[in-house]
Design brief:
mainly alpha, Growth Hormone, Chain: A, transmembrane transporter activity, 75% helix, MFS_dom, single chain
Length: 350
């Protein structure tokens, strides 16, 4: 939700200065909306001295999540300003980079925790040092292109635009069920006989496939239409979610992990470009993106606890998968409705 704070600020201030983003903001986190556990230097610095559960909630949950939103909005807004015709491809490639972290960091964390010469504290510190190095590059390279937007910090009038509001509602449902496998797939695999060592790599498989999905989704969206692609990949993601309980041995579970990572990753990149496309003026890209993601982040917050409650109540994962699949499917239909109310029609390339 912190993205709604920083994205408009980027539009108003950073563009005016025409200089790299403020280091105070960049040093708070890194551009990745899914891997808040291990990928934020400040949150990691606090986590390395955490002793109790609530310490980790504050350090990695709240501080890490806040810093994530503070960095993601400006980076995405900056990338969107440099492209018009190929904006979807540019944003897809930009957000695909976060999937690399989702592959590298779980594996690195697992290896370092298994090393008897490294404590948990130093494991987290090492990851934090890597973050600082990566963010230093970001501080030096991310710049605004357009002059500042004049007017209010937010754009309340945007919520009077039916296509934009419909898109926000659609993606709220999609996000509500989207991240269930990211939380529960390793436990599901272990329950069905997969070794702990192999199940630990499922997150890396999900994120590795997500890299290609995010990039491909953006590239194809410029050819086939952004809303068309969003509807397509969201529908396929919902179908995969419904098929999840049928994967009960190692090979199908791994295949599901790869396919789900690919198509769900495309949703992430296409959400960004569709939110930005709702803004008629490119100077408002960051604000439209930040406001939309701030609202939909509530779904990311409440979705996993809901599915977790279903797993606990029924003692299995089928009900959670069906709930998540239904939510994502509602999001797919909503994306199609958002395209229709934009006045372009169902069959246009939008």
């Amino acid at each position: 939700m912190s993205g709604v704070e920083r994205s408009p600020e980027f539009s108003l201030e950073d563009e005016k200065r025409h200089e790299p983003m403020p280091k105070a903001s960049l040093e708070a986190g890194m551009p990745d909306q899914e891997k808040a556990v291990d990928e934020f230097p400040e949150g990691g610095a606090r986590a390395c001295i955490s002793k109790k559960l609530w310490h980790f909630v504050l350090a990695q949950g709240i501080l890490g999540g806040f810093s994530m939103g503070m960095i993601l909005g400006p980076v995405m807004a900056a990338a969107g300003q440099y492209f018009q015709k190929k904006r979807a491809a540019a944003l897809g490639l930009s957000v695909a980079g976060s999937s690399v972290g989702g592959v590298v960091f779980p594996i690195a964390l697992s290896k370092m925790l298994a090393n008897p010469n490294l404590t948990f504290g130093w494991t987290v510190r090492i990851l934090g040092f890597i973050m600082v190095a990566c963010l230093a590059v970001t501080c030096l390279t991310v710049k605004a292109r357009l002059p500042p937007r004049k007017g209010q910090f937010l754009i309340p009038a945007a919520f009077k635009e039916l296509p934009y509001v419909t898109l926000i509602g659609a993606m709220f449902f999609a996000v509500l069920g989207l991240f269930t496998p990211f939380f529960y797939l390793p436990s599901y695999a272990a329950q069905h006989g997969m070794s702990i060592q192999l199940s630990a790599y499922l997150a890396a498989i999900l994120n590795g496939a997500s890299f290609f999905g995010r990039a491909a989704g953006g590239i194809l969206a410029d050819r086939l239409g952004r809303f068309n692609m969003l509807f397509g990949v969201t529908t396929i993601t919902a179908i995969l979610m419904f098929c999840w309980p049928s994967a009960q041995t190692n090979a199908p579970i791994i295949a599901f992990s790869a396919l789900y990572g690919f198509f769900s990753g495309a949703i992430i990149s296409l959400m960004a470009v569709c939110f930005m496309s709702a803004a008629e003026d490119a100077k408002n890209n960051g604000t439209y993106y930040g406001m939309g993601m701030a609202i939909d982040s509530i779904a990311a917050l409440i979705g996993p606890p809901i599915t977790g409650a279903l797993v606990t109540k029924y003692g299995g994962f089928s009900e959670a998968a069906y709930f998540s699949g239904a939510a994502v499917l509602v999001g797919a239909v909503g994306a199609l409705v958002a395209k229709f109310v934009s006045g372009k029609g169902f069959f246009s390339r939008v």
